Amino acid sequence: MLRMLTAGESHGPKLTVILEGMPAGLPISTNILNQGLARRQHGCGAGPRMSIEKDEIKIISGVLQGKTTGSPIALEIQNQDFINWQGKSLVPITIPRPGHADLTGAAKYGYKDLRLPMERSSARETAARVAAAGICRIFLRLLGIQVGGYVIQIGQIRWDNTTILLSNEFKAAIEERLQASEQSEVRCPDKAVSIAMQQAIQAAQEAGDSLGGIIEVLACNVPPGLGSFVHFDRRLDSQLAAGLMSIPAIKGIAIGNAFGNAAKFGSEINDPIVLKDGHLIRTSNHAGGIEGGISNGEPIVVQVAMKPIPTFPKGLPSVDLANGQPAQSPFYRGDCCPVARAVPVIEAMMVFVLTNALLEKLGGDSIAEILPRFQVLHKMQLDDFSMDTQPWTFDVF
Amino acid sequence: MLRMLTAGESHGPKLTVILEGMPAGLPISTNILNQGLARRQHGCGAGPRMSIEKDEIKIISGVLQGKTTGSPIALEIQNQDFINWQGKSLVPITIPRPGHADLTGAAKYGYKDLRLPMERSSARETAARVAAAGICRIFLRLLGIQVGGYVIQIGQIRWDNTTILLSNEFKAAIEERLQASEQSEVRCPDKAVSIAMQQAIQAAQEAGDSLGGIIEVLACNVPPGLGSFVHFDRRLDSQLAAGLMSIPAIKGIAIGNAFGNAAKFGSEINDPIVLKDGHLIRTSNHAGGIEGGISNGEPIVVQVAMKPIPTFPKGLPSVDLANGQPAQSPFYRGDCCPVARAVPVIEAMMVFVLTNALLEKLGGDSIAEILPRFQVLHKMQLDDFSMDTQPWTFDVF
Amino acid sequence: MLRMLTAGESHGPKLTVILEGMPAGLPISTNILNQGLARRQHGCGAGPRMSIEKDEIKIISGVLQGKTTGSPIALEIQNQDFINWQGKSLVPITIPRPGHADLTGAAKYGYKDLRLPMERSSARETAARVAAAGICRIFLRLLGIQVGGYVIQIGQIRWDNTTILLSNEFKAAIEERLQASEQSEVRCPDKAVSIAMQQAIQAAQEAGDSLGGIIEVLACNVPPGLGSFVHFDRRLDSQLAAGLMSIPAIKGIAIGNAFGNAAKFGSEINDPIVLKDGHLIRTSNHAGGIEGGISNGEPIVVQVAMKPIPTFPKGLPSVDLANGQPAQSPFYRGDCCPVARAVPVIEAMMVFVLTNALLEKLGGDSIAEILPRFQVLHKMQLDDFSMDTQPWTFDVF
Amino acid sequence: MLRMLTAGESHGPKLTVILEGMPAGLPISTNILNQGLARRQHGCGAGPRMSIEKDEIKIISGVLQGKTTGSPIALEIQNQDFINWQGKSLVPITIPRPGHADLTGAAKYGYKDLRLPMERSSARETAARVAAAGICRIFLRLLGIQVGGYVIQIGQIRWDNTTILLSNEFKAAIEERLQASEQSEVRCPDKAVSIAMQQAIQAAQEAGDSLGGIIEVLACNVPPGLGSFVHFDRRLDSQLAAGLMSIPAIKGIAIGNAFGNAAKFGSEINDPIVLKDGHLIRTSNHAGGIEGGISNGEPIVVQVAMKPIPTFPKGLPSVDLANGQPAQSPFYRGDCCPVARAVPVIEAMMVFVLTNALLEKLGGDSIAEILPRFQVLHKMQLDDFSMDTQPWTFDVF
Asked: I need a labelling partner for C9 at 20 to 30 A (CA). Which of A33, B199, C29, C375 fits?
């Protein structure tokens, strides 16, 4: 069981995260962790805070001799902005922004200043998750598992990729797509579409408004057998949905193109099984790599809907809680369209969920113990299946 | 903490479910539980098994004097079909159906007969969840909380309802919609659309194919303050996503119309706050009743995408695991379009998640202890908020 | 993660238990399960109910072809006494028995009849645990792990065994001790002491009183490496303490002879490490097989204190809750000294905790996958350790 | 649900702890937290490290305006010793100390230097728990609940207190006892016994040996109704056992004087119920405040056995893992008898478990919401019970 607790406010001294349950012997490099974190700060539509913060991870514990020890790993990220806030006199905020935790947070916790929910519900917290997931990602890479994402829609600009192709049959195309997206300001693999997306963002920004979008995230080389159908909370799709939906502003989760597939015939979107070079493979991947709540060895593909965030210059009708008067919701620095920057966060949660599922499948306490177990995992070779042929009697109960 | 474990195979003697953590003193009637279960067996496109099984719930424990005692509640549902299977001689199934747990189950657990994963991954298991959720639903009703769902799409036939209207402002419309859907064979509130959906199902059936669809499920009168932004796994949307995605054939979850909203401007889909009769309300509900991971008092609205199931007469290309030969996937009795019948299952998981969130908010061990706590819960009255007006210094760290 | 939920009242129709998380492919025999359960019904000092109930386990689900399938396993035990209670008219009980859940249960749940807490807090519930642990025990036996217990004290009669000897060096003595205890009416391995214990029980019974005692339970051939020091809730001793303390009437848990060891010098009770035939072994086992929260390969030894139960003919001063008048606590059929019969229950909880810890160490989903992992587990061979000799710099943070 | 994760090595830069699940609005003072922590560093038999470290807590997050916000609370304690270790060249340790995690840690995690398990299994980690429990203790104090402990045995010197007296009837005596223990170098309430204990420690120190002991910890004014009999893992005694047994060197847990009580008659150690001033009270408290797994309103009393620690100058027979040669186990700075200093750690785990149980009983998200719920909790007044008098029929199943 892998556990992660994050702590930290947006303008407090730092973010802290403890990751508990990683096996011993995993080589960790601060550089790699920082590279992962940097991706979260990059992208068109980023707000002004991104120029204040240049996140750096400090490993506090759980790593000795450059390797994990199996002990809880504490990571810290300083808030550069803290020095500007320490000792600052703050006038309470009393006008809630619709769509944020301002009003619900005050209702739940009895806050008398809406800064309190804003401090913790801020997307700044996700930096801590990306940091911890960086550890998990090193583990996945060691096993040859790659997680990546890209933007397929911003506002009304949609890139018409074909999820069906994202089976193992098209590994080269996937690789290319992931690389191309990192070159794009909006993390869209297609150049022309990227430009259109950027234009849409700029138009929204000029209009004092915000834009959301859709991200596709995938994991390649995931072995079959993660998750299970035997109990509802063991399903891998359920665990992925929980993880991805826990990200601020994420409101929709689809395994593969689930909402599109709902309009099709069963014969169109269930992926045929064929034998190739001794392996059972698929020529399409509408299932998004998960059947019966279990990974099937094809790339895991999830589409994630991000709402246009509710903080933008032109504001929204609200009410001043101090006096009941109508008031426009306030604007603070914020991204007009954080969709591109959400990609590493979404990847992080997928990385976390998959690492947990793998550790459950593999057990063990050190990389040396786990690696041989991983190597003999079922890879959907026909020879690994051994079918009975004799009838048996259904009478065991 | 509410816990639920289900057990039982599709053709075993019975389904068993234990629900642990319900408070004492909740009046339970087997009749009400059975009515809830009956809804799962009703609907166009139901397969032949539905005429075999007339599910009846037996309360085994946890209820005395007609009320819950706080002890674990065990419920049973007999499998009427069991007598036809007991002692039956079964030839192993070796051709996996794409889209099911057949292949992934065999890869994970090493089964030598694909009947084994089929027995447990069958949707029959969901009857146990509906049964246990029936207990939770009685609890919600006691608090005035109503959960209902309906079908908005089957195949390409979509009912163009307007989720935006599903705020508390339109309670009468919601009520009407829920009632209308129960009159429809396909659980769609609109008569004309229902007929079109039925025709689509019939056409698919004649083509030996299957159809999926989209279901909208909602919960009215949920108090604000369930879930939280303070930690990722406390978010109500995350918990709902996990619960709903854990249902067989469900592949997509959207809070409100999340995927549609991703194409809009922030100013269009964040719900303005207005004061009316002393209450802070919304005139739209794009957020689906959840802001910052917390219920905001508006109806909770979730859209759920169900794939067209992979068992249908014309079959799919597959491979016989016994010999590696190509083979068409087998067809067993099954629903051509179980979307309408999935509605009560989806409701059940929402009911379960909300009950758990409420019990966490309310604490307590008996209805007598819980009711007064519920009655003083924040209801988004302006007067309940008490804002600070004096500046304070950000220096507490 | 292994999960177990039990349900059922003392006089309800049956006990139900669901065990979730067992790997597939474990051969299960109802006979073996029933033998395990029968041990719970045997022993001097057993109350009259034991002649009413002859417990038999029914496997409801999770087992096909005589083997576990990886699906949740539901087991049932009928309450033979139910037919005598069904439809019975019951006068409310209003005088709480000190030492039972009568008063605390009523205070917590608001019961108006003390039968309600009595129905569930009855030790009858432990039959369900023993049944489920029977499945786990088959798993442990497959791995060569043996769990057994015996009585070392009843009232003031104590058998002065020497826990120090219970290291792997004395396996034959352990085996003999476990066998001898099964021949004794009071489950004490020593014949003379057994007779004295029986006499003490008889004297207590004649005095209308009850007796408690101390049980020693042990697990042999447990591999090193279960549990951990890295986080407090991962410690094996902590998990054992939780499991064993959860049994009704159990009030004390000692790893080894902990309370006696607390009076000794450190040099007396820490177990020296010596090399023998290439293995690192101990010549004493004061640690009870656990060091730093981790099993060390020596037998795990736990002493468990059971209080004299509070139901006995002469009763105790109490108060009638119906009118506030002083009243003697009532006596119902009950064991005068259930210590011997508690042994299988205590074993059951140890079996459950160890199985869970093993599954965490081993991971995996089927016996076929787990066995090779188990076989290469560290067995405290010197050769398995590979020490660094070069200095390194403490600077990785 | 209250969650706590600690991280940090003995000689790393700092200890970190995240406490998740505390309600909002609890006033926090660093001073009070530091006072709690200071108690852990005080006491006869403390090792030289105690003069190096003067622990100070830094609140990193979760507290604003001097109050908890409901967000995760991160606390840090610097390791003063870190500057002496940073960049230090370290020769691997290859001789395991019996009784520590050295050997089991290396077997489990594959360490090649025994410093690695020593860094995390060190009792230094408990400072983080004491820090986090300091927050919980402020919560308990707000509710009038007091937790304290004292030493009743060191080596063979035992203070013959009478646990039986520790019922609410003797609150003044309890208070006095707790205060007296804080005046004693060995935290024993009795002056003469304290001197004898100190002499025993000094003798052990001179002999190059170590001593253990027994601690009694109690909680006063705990309301009835925490924990439950309805499921085994809901029992308060089980949760306390898990928490207290998770502390390094703690090997035994007794609710009340459980091992002594096991030798008595049932009529001697079950606590009579009497009515006094409208309240149902006990004149003895052998049950240690817990009946049927539920707090009964009397002081919760737990005895905890601590083994004599295995690090002392004269060492123990061991084996050099680098070459298989016999070798005496090494001695590092360490306490000869840390029993007195363990008291605040034991209190901390009891505080944590009770806070969690209270939050489960009370629910809610802020102190303002929780306080009224606490005030109407059952206090064992006779008037709060309302018994049925009419017969009912046992036929609901």
From this structure: C29
CA angle A293, B306, B112 (to 5 degrees): 35
Are the beta carbons of A98 and B156 separated by less than 8 Å?
no
Cα–Cα distance for residue pair B271/A360, rounded to 1 Å: 41
- Neighboring chain C residues of B62 at a CB cutoff of 8 Å: 7, 9
Question: What is the DSSP secondary structure assignment for residue D246, as one 8-state letter?
Answer: T
SS3 D143: coil
Sort residue A151 into left (φ over 0), alpha (ψ -120 to 50) or beta. beta
Half-sphere exposure of C91 toward its Cβ, with a 13 Å CA cutoff?
3
Strand-strand pairing, D57-61 and D73-78: antiparallel
The complex's ipTM? 0.97
What are φ and ψ of residue A130, in 5° steps? Answer: -60, -40
Tokens standing for B369? 């202890």
Q: Which token pair is B197? A: 């959906």
Proportion of chain D above pLDDT 70, given as a percent: 96
Query: Which tokens in the block code for residue B384?
Result: 């309940």
B positions 68-107 inside 8 Å of D (CB): 69-72
Query: For residue A331, what pLDDT is reported?
Result: 87
Which of A108, A124, A323, A380 to probe by mutation at the B interface, max B CB count within 10 Å? A108
- The 10 Å CB-count burial string (b at 16+, else e) for A296-313 is bbbbbbbbbbbbbbbbbe
Q: Are A62 and A90 in contact (CB under 8 A)?
A: no
pTM: 0.97
Testing the interface with B: which of A267, A329, A358 to mutate, by most B Cβ within 10 A?
A267
Nearest Cα residue to B271 out of C389, D232, A329, C336: A329
- Could you give the CA distance from residue A38 to residue A55 in angstroms, rounded to a whole number? 7
Contacts of C213 in chain D (CB under 8 A): 262
Q: Is A21 on the interface with D (CB under 8 A)?
A: no
pLDDT of residue B393 exceeding 80, the answer is yes
Residue of A nearest to D107 (CA): A365
Query: For position D332, what pLDDT does the model report?
Result: 79
Tell me the pLDDT tens digit for each residue of D358-385: 999 999 999 999 999 999 999 999 999 9
Question: Above 80 in pLDDT, residue B44?
Answer: no
CA distance D65 to chain C (A): 32
CB C315 within 8 A of CB C330: yes
Of A291, C355, A42, residue with least CA distance to B118: A291
- Comparing A29-38, A294-303, B242-251, C326-335, which segment has the lowest mean pLDDT? C326-335
> Nearest by CB to D9, which of A8, A16, A61?
A61
Which H or E run includes B349?
helix B339-362
The contacts of residue A96 (CB under 8 Å, 6+ apart) are A102, A103, A106, A114, A318, A319, A321, A329, B273
Tokens of D347: 């209190």
Testing the interface with B: which of D229, D231, D239 to mutate, by most B Cβ within 10 A?
D231
E-state strands within chain B: 3-7, 14-20, 57-61, 63-64, 67-68, 73-78, 88-90, 146-154, 157-158, 213-220, 250-255, 273-276, 279-282, 290-291, 294-295, 300-306, 317-319, 326-328, 392-394
- C196-220 pLDDT, tens digit each: 999 999 999 999 999 999 999 999 9
> Any idea which residue has 């006892």 for tokens?
D177
Q: What domains are there in chain D, each with its CATH number?
A: 3-375 (3.60.150.10)
User: Residue D22's pLDDT is what?
Assistant: 98
pLDDT at D397 over 60: no
Distance from C-alpha of B246 to C-alpha of A238, rounded to nearest angstrom: 5
The better pLDDT of the pair C165, A46 is held by C165
B390 to chain A: which residues are within 8 Å by CB? 92
C/D interface, count of CB pairs below 8 Å = 448
